[in-house]
Amino acid sequence: MKTIITIIVMALTISAVNAQMTSENELLKTLDVTTPEALQVNKVPGLAIAIIKEGEVIIKKGYGFANVAQGTKVETNTGFNIGSISKTFTAWGIMKLVEEGKIYLDNSAAVYISNWKLPASEFDASKVTIRNLLQHTAGLSVHGYSGYETKNELTSIRNSLSGISNPDEKVALIMEPESKWQYSGGGYSILQLVIEEVTGQTFADYMDSNLFRPLRMRNTSFNIDHQLLKNSAKAYDEEAQEIPLRLFNAQAAAGLHTTLDDLILFAKASFSKNPVISQKSLDLLIAPTKISQGNYGMGYMEMNRFGDFTLHGHGGSNEGWHSGFMLDFESKSGIIILTNGSSGRNVLFGSMKDWAQWHGHN
To answer: What Å distances lie between residue 181 and 90, 120, 145, 148, 149, CA to CA?
Structure first.
């Protein structure tokens, strides 16, 4: 009897595995058709995509070109700028300092900053806290940043916050803190300064030492140097014309460069015990606030537009780049998409819909 039961169990297991493999192959076949078509229609040179199911990578693949002129194909270790997904990593950096007792979420950000303060306004700047900076509820200006074409155009984060070299980057208190949710890359620039002041390191060096190295993300950094760019994709505009890689004073808000392989490591770290932050801290980061109408926590968006499951993560867009990093924490599944075109958003959402339709039934 035991032998018969064992045979039945083995047969059922093999059948389930075969069904799963068939299902995954169906998704890959769909992506293999829809992705190249979408890239061509939207004039986006390349895309890298990873699909994670129950903590395991079931698909990771590059499509199209990292460098059109040289005919270099997108690979899983090709570098991309990921725009505002940078904010998710900044939130981890802040929470690590919170866990170490060096920062308190409900302290005024001014407690940690010397030689810079918000311009005087009718609102109370002392109510701008670490927590509401993370949540985009601090009442600040500067939605996003356009960046610069050369390093010699960059300045310190203090000068950026003050608008000394670029008035568009000047961060001001424009409404009462905690009165309204308003997305502010400027708030994350203040967090960048807080990290530098508290640690005595540059923001980029702190993130390298305390996040990327512990997570073994060896091709990820806010320090944009020759080594990092050696395997990087080129950026392209809406007509698929190559444009310069833009650099950022506001690194914490928009400046991270990484690869699909490294983001897979980050996703896996998010699903299990990791050497950077605790599960309690991660739960706090992804929990959406009421003031955001349940759409944003601290460095994480919440999204359920694709089905009866909830995703947490972030999107990113800079000139020449669009990306998405969304995780279903309940099933330990998710999708990561990186593109190197200014019209990449259209391609990205098409791939997300293909995956979400499949994920909803698997």
So the answer is: 19, 21, 19, 28, 31
Beta carbons of 103 and 95 less than 8 angstroms apart: no
**Residue from 224, 267, 256 nearest 321 by CA:** 256
Percentage of residues of the chain with pLDDT beyond 90: 90
Predicted confidence (pLDDT) per residue in 72-115, tens digit = 999 999 999 999 999 999 999 999 999 999 999 999 999 999 99
User: CB neighbours (10 Å) of residue 131?
Assistant: 20
Which domain CATH number covers 207? 3.40.710.10
User: What is the domain count for the chain?
Assistant: 1
Q: How far apart are CA 53 and CA 305, in angstroms?
A: 19
The answer to the question of residue 22 being in a domain is: no
142's tokens? 């500067």
Strand segments, DSSP code E, in the chain are: 46-53, 56-67, 72-73, 79-81, 235-236, 242-243, 257-259, 301-303, 311-318, 321-328, 333-339
DSSP strand E in 220-310: where? 235-236, 242-243, 257-259, 301-303
- Residue 28 included in any domain: no
pTM as predicted:
0.93
**What domain range includes position 260?**
38-359
Q: Is residue 150 part of a domain?
A: yes
Return the amino acid letter for 244: P
